[in-house]
Amino acid sequence: MSPAALAVVLALAQSAPAPAAKPPPKPAATHSEAPPYEADLLRLAELMGALAYLRDLCHEGDGAGFRERIGQLIASDPRPQEAKDLLAGAFNRGFDGYRLTYRDCTSNARSTMADYLDETQKIAREVAAKYGGG
Prior knowledge:
It is a single chain. The protein has 134 residues and is mainly α. It has one domain (3-18, 37-131). It is built from five helices and no strands. The longest helix has 25 residues, at 107-131. It is globular, with a radius of gyration of 14 Å. The two termini are 12 Å apart. The relative contact order is 0.24.
């Protein structure tokens, strides 16, 4: 993992304010040398997409921060464009999945946000600890 990508993951681990029931997506088989943390990054990107939508929907005011962080993560990824496209696609799936089902901020939306914030922190910490030399 590049130092810049690690910095983005570490920032997520330290800044996110709760664990979701969804299992992480399986790594895509389109790139033969996917890093061992590929599934974690894809899940993290999907969570960030969902949070970008839900945080704005619930007027938390920081949805743009998740969009900025995924942009930083994608920009700092040293892998080919194909891998970057997978991250962007995962983010968009997370965003669109909730955009299609939530029109109002409900108690379920708030519960999902809390779970996803916790899961985001957990994944970011685990990836940083396993692959970031920390």
